């Protein structure tokens, strides 16, 4: 008989954020919701099935899991014979929990799915909620994050309907832990803060302990060690008070991680040892694996590599046994890092390749934004593997990894548009090997220059943090397929730095992001000497090491494949010691990756099949729309209006100006246009502030009650465009969130929507120079369809009349020439 309710299920269900620090903080599994148990009443004899069920509970509590499973399997047969679906469902749930505890996640998932189906048939909504929660837990361990989110949300909806506040708080925390694994820390923090508030409201001390621990993990992932320590200490003290041993162990491990990050290795080891002792007492493989991984990294930091490798091998073995793929990938990454430090390069390469394979599989079924986010938590493995391959004198293999480690989500989006197959199956989505890279250079008859900024290894796997810039790897792929590698030690550079109100002073070692930021700041000041110095310093860093490899014919194309902050660097304005700008010598383009360049080439070929030329009938020219009300402060652009009118005359087209340039009208015309020119405001973070999703939007005229006048990146991604070229003659249209996947913004959205060539601006350019540059660009384009060469000639002409680089160097062509 199914009657009274007992305490709780055997184990908790969530184990996210399971790295070790400096890797990442551990989060203790959350317990399931209360589970009914078959127990007899005072006057009712216990049935054999119930007795077996209870025996299994007692065996599991003593860590006799195989015996418990045997008891439950016998109980399950009896419940099925009795046609007792309640008992059957409960037993299936316990079997799932036991197999999950043993690390057999696939088997656990089967039992959970059967339990949930029976609960649904019985209209047992609490049972169904538990089923979804356990399904979510198992999918998390398998690295199926989308399925974990979906299952958690289903559990949450049921619990809200049932007005089960305690359960609601638990599932919010579980969901928050999935977002920690995805690197979506703001979302995770919001969920955990709600979970903590509900736990405190309901007097759920265990729930509060778990939320405090997870909030500490989020703070640590951002490098806020003081805040993280505060959360961990509170979690530890509360866990001790209520004798919550698993949470106590996690808090100890996480406090050790803080000392580890602060290079207090002996104190860290003391905390890790305490965690290990508790894990062994509990018989918890999860905790033991985390503690051993932490100890391994701490001993590696002390250069005790033999001991470190022993710990890491054990940690990996346990993660493997548990079937926890995210934890296994972290363990392999830790192991590979220590092998690299120990000089065991071949073994290190093998471990890192395996770690990367798992991490790539974890991204497979995610949405685009989730792929971008989680990739930024995984990117360090690609940097480290590049270093290992270069150390083995295998720079071409390192280039393959550099390509494999950039713009992956972008590539998959493009591949899905180009191919009828799914992105995961499409041959277009597979990273290029070295022969394919050579072929791409030959197809474009261009010199490809790929940069990789290699950080130091102070953060092995801690959130999205990376260390200071250590090296700059540069590969030059020439049109004949020759590949040359250059390795720049950034610690050998002394760049000038400037404090407000002070003179220049030398700065040892450099952060490329800071140098680019400094340049962009001085570009808009009248201090031309200072601007020139910055341009020359960046030329010395980025161009001088490869000057001998670049073409001598200025019409030959050079395509830069930047990384990080180099995406917003005005390459045309870089200046050598003779005060010659790079645009004077070369025709320049950029691309997020070599593979993206290949995909845009295919897009262009596909469009060429229509044999439709650009004309006034298929050109969409927009200038100075009536600005939307939000965000406030969008001023009219009279110069953009004049620019659009002039370009429309050149093309014999009709420009959409003012109130005519509505979002509705523009979007309606975009799919049929072969050329799209948008002279209006480009927006960045204002869109995020308005709650409209990813950065980037084009300001157009609103239609009250129909459209808001903001054409966002997410809306562009849903379009099917056939334009050969889109020109965004607007403020900051080339910017966005800089991630490991490239710049997440308007240019990415337009290329994904089908446009092979996009011309964007890196900053707001004054009206007169922009009008001059744009009209000259179209004049050149009418004579020569090569967009990069047309832009070069337009820049050279504009430079003559408006010499400061801020007037002419903002525009960059992305994709096909």
TrEMBL record:
TPR repeats lie at residues 169-202, 209-242, 249-282. Residues 345-372 form a coiled coil. The keyword Hydrolase does not apply. Keywords: Coiled coil, TPR repeat. InterPro entries: CHAT_dom, TPR-like_helical_dom_sf, TPR_rpt. This is CHAT domain-containing protein. It comes from the Bacteria. Residues 533-816 form the CHAT domain. It holds the Pfam family CHAT.
């Amino acid at each position: 008989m199914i009657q009274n309710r007992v305490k709780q299920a055997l184990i908790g269900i969530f184990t996210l954020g399971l790295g070790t620090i400096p890797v990442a903080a551990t989060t203790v599994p959350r317990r399931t919701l209360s589970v009914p148990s078959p127990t007899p009443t005072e006057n009712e004899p216990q049935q054999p099935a119930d007795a077996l069920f209870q025996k299994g509970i007692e065996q599991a509590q003593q860590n006799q899991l195989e015996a418990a499973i045997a008891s439950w399997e016998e109980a399950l047969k009896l419940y099925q014979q009795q046609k007792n679906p309640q008992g059957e469902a409960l037993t299936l749930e316990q079997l799932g929990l036991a197999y999950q505890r043993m690390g057999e996640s696939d088997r656990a998932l089967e039992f959970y799915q059967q339990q949930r189906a029976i609960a649904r048939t019985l209209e047992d909504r609490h049972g169904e909620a538990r089923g979804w929660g356990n399904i979510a837990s198992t999918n998390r361990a398998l690295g199926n994050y989308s399925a974990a989110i979906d299952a958690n949300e289903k559990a949450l909806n049921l619990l809200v309907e049932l007005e089960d506040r305690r359960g609601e708080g638990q599932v919010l925390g579980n969901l928050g832990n999935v977002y920690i694994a995805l690197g979506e820390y703001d979302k995770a923090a919001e969920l955990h803060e709600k979970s903590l508030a509900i736990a405190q409201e309901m007097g759920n001390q265990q729930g509060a302990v778990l939320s405090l621990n997870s909030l500490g993990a989020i703070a640590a992932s951002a490098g806020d060690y003081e805040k993280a320590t505060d959360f961990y200490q509170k979690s530890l003290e509360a866990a001790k008070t209520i004798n919550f041993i698993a949470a106590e162990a996690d808090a100890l491990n996480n406090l050790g991680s803080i000392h580890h990050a602060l290079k207090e290795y002996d104190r860290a080891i003391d905390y890790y040892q305490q965690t290990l002792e508790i894990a062994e007492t509990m018989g918890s493989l999860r905790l033991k694996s985390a503690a051993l991984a932490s100890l391994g990294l701490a001993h590696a930091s002390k250069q005790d590599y033999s001991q470190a490798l022993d710990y890491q091998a054990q940690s990996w073995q346990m993660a493997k046994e548990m079937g926890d793929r995210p934890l296994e990938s972290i363990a392999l990454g830790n192991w590979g890092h220590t092998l690299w430090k120990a000089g065991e390069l071949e073994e290190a390469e093998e471990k890192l390749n395996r770690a990367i394979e798992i991490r790539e599989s974890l991204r497979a079924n995610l949405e685009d934004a989730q792929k971008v986010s989680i990739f930024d938590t995984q990117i360090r493995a690609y940097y480290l593997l590049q270093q290992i391959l270069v150390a083995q004198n295998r720079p071409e293999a390192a280039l393959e990894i550099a390509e494999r480690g950039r713009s992956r989500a972008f590539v998959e989006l493009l591949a899905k548009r180009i191919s009828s197959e799914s992105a995961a199956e499409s041959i277009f989505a597979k990273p290029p090997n070295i022969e394919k890279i050579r072929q791409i250079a030959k197809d474009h008859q261009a010199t490809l220059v790929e940069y990789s900024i290699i950080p130091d290894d102070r953060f092995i796997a801690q959130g999205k943090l990376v260390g200071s810039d250590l090296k700059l790897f540069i590969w030059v792929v020439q049109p004949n397929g020759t590949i040359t590698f250059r390795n720049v030690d950034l610690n050998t550079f002394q760049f000038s730095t400037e404090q407000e109100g002070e003179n220049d002073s030398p700065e040892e070692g450099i952060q490329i992001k800071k140098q680019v930021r400094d340049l962009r700041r001085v570009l808009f000041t009248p201090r031309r000497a200072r601007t020139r110095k910055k341009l020359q310093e960046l030329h010395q860093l980025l161009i001088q090491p490869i000057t001998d490899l670049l073409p001598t014919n200025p019409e030959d194309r050079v395509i830069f494949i930047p990384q990080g902050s180099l995406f917003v660097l005005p390459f045309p304005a870089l200046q050598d010691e003779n005060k010659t700008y790079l645009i004077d010598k070369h025709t320049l383009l950029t691309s997020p990756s070599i593979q993206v360049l290949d995909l845009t080439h295919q897009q262009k070929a596909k469009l060429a099949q229509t044999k439709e030329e650009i004309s006034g009938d298929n050109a969409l020219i927009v200038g100075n729309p009536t600005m939307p009300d939000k965000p406030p402060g969008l001023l009219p652009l009279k110069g953009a209006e004049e620019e659009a009118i002039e370009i429309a005359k050149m093309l014999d087209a009709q420009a959409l100006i003012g109130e005519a340039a509505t979002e509705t009208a523009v979007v309606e015309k975009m799919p049929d246009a072969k050329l799209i020119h948008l002279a209006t405001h480009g927006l960045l973070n204002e869109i995020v502030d308005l709650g409209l999703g990813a950065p980037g939007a084009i300001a157009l005229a609103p239609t009250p009650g129909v459209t808001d006048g903001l054409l966002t990146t997410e809306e562009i991604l849903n379009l099917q465009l056939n334009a050969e070229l889109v020109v965004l003659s607007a403020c900051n249209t080339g910017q966005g969130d800089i991630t490991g996947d490239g710049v997440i913004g308007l240019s990415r959205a337009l290329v994904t929507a089908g446009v092979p060539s996009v011309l964007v601006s890196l900053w707001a350019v004054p009206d007169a120079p922009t009008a001059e540059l744009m009209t000259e660009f179209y004049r050149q384009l009418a004579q020569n369809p090569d967009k990069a060469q047309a832009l070069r000639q337009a820049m050279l002409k504009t430079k003559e009349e408006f010499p400061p680089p801020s007037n002419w160097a903002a525009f960059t062509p992305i994709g096909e020439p």
